[in-house]
Write a structure and sequence with these properties.
CATH architecture: 3-Layer(aba) Sandwich
Number of strands: 6
Number of helices: 5
Number of domains: 1
CATH superfamily: NAD(P)-binding Rossmann-like Domain
Order of helices and strands: EHEEHEHEHEH
Radius of gyration: 17 Å
Shape: globular
Low-confidence stretches: none
CATH class: Alpha Beta
Strand order of the largest sheet: 3-2-1-4-5-6
Structural class: alpha/beta
Distance between the termini: 44 Å
Amino acid sequence: MKDLYVVIVGCGRLGSQLANALSRLGMGVVAIDSSDSAFSGLSRAYSGFRVEGDATEPAVLRAAKMDKADLVIATTRDDNVNLMVAQTARTLFSVPRVMARVFDPKRERMYRALGIEPVCPTVLAVEAFMNIIRNQEDKADAS
């Protein structure tokens, strides 16, 4: 797992936390964001690279050496940008594994059909709340 080269598009709260975590594991990481200030979330220990630019532009993705990536993760706040970046990674750069944050649960099926692994915060939050509710009910039943 250490030898993975990962490109993360979007360096907000999620992207920067993910970049920091993967960097700590010793992976090669490149974070892309259109705003230089977004990189402030990267820790001092972050050993990866930063590329400032619009990730919907192939030249920016080339600067991040996306053609060498083992994994691309699109984490922006915009489902359409994430989908465009993910599709570009799959089709133009032939990245073997592509993941994308998708806010609209109705889009998960479409992402999967395109070979993109979706992570939907909405679905994950529902599952977390339901687990908490179930655990509380189990504790009440055990009493």
